[in-house]
């Protein structure tokens, strides 16, 4: 099933965070090989990242996750630890932050 990334993030989603389509500088899908779901990521020009999940059947889960601008490794590691504490899997965290799952695993191991 083809899916348009621009339809995943509605104008309401963007407005909720004070953004508009013109502020989007990167749109990507990261697939989950086990479930077939995909993480849709929208990176804004001010550094924040919005994340939504699209299931294998094409259902868009309406919860939007806003990640803060990450400028240092320490900030990234804190975000990884926080997401892990909030029941996100290593694979989900890696897809959200566009990093390898090994990096997430290393950060969580060094607690």
TrEMBL record:
<protein>
    <submittedName>
        <fullName>Trp family transcriptional regulator</fullName>
    </submittedName>
</protein>
<dbReference type="Pfam" id="PF01371">
    <property type="entry name" value="Trp_repressor"/>
</dbReference>
<dbReference type="InterPro" id="IPR010921">
    <property type="entry name" value="Trp_repressor/repl_initiator"/>
</dbReference>
<dbReference type="InterPro" id="IPR038116">
    <property type="entry name" value="TrpR-like_sf"/>
</dbReference>
<dbReference type="InterPro" id="IPR000831">
    <property type="entry name" value="Trp_repress"/>
</dbReference>
